[in-house]
Design a protein that fits this description.
There is one protein chain. Helices cover about 30% and strands about 30% of the residues. It is of the alpha+beta class. It is globular.
Length: about 260
Amino acid sequence: MRSETTTGLSKVEVIRIDERKLGEAAVEYVPAECEFRIFVNDKVETALHCAPHRIKSLVVGWLVGEGIIERENEFVAIDTDLDRLVIKVTVSDKAADALAVRALTGPVGKLADPYFARRVGTETELAPEQVVELAQRFKKLFLSLKSNERMCYLAAFAQNGEIHSYGEGFHRINAMYRALGELVLAGVAPEGRIALTNFGLTKQMTLRLARAGVCMAICAAPPSSAAIELANEYYLCVVSTAIGGQLTVYSAPWRVI
């Protein structure tokens, strides 16, 4: 079967089989996945599996989620070679050195995850109806996206009832990275923001939100047990809206009053 790649999606030939067990040829769009090699200041090499669109926000979000940068001015430049699937990133020397240390001390092919201080207090609180309203705004955002942007997973960041950035992807972590990257590239710090996702959180996703200083995550599915334990440690409130209008609060319950 052949495929033809467009921005973020590939057009493929498929066989659709109906209830009578009769098949016919059809065309469908699926996410286009590539493995990009990333070089940071020529010191650290890693890889990201993603669709070849909105690469800049994806990489900046990855840097934020890894705790390497916090502000837009720590990110200098990005050079993307789509033919060779290579991304060269330039960040501040301080940020590059921090990443290099983690690469040296971690297992082969994996960055070390050192302890980091909690970045939020207990001040931010939302009433249950505010949580529901944000979840509804997030759903409307997803439904308003163009078909070529409406991939499997969507993440966004909000404050004071307003959604400031979003990111989509066929990997949950990529959607989160893109949303983080769009936020930081707009000059907005993620600290104290509210994350919204149409998926549940794993421990690794929760770790990256905590590193960025996020105080709450409103999700469409439950988190893992390890995610809940980590979220409580970092005062990150995780709320699920999975069952109708019911809210389930998994961590830092004082944030939902």
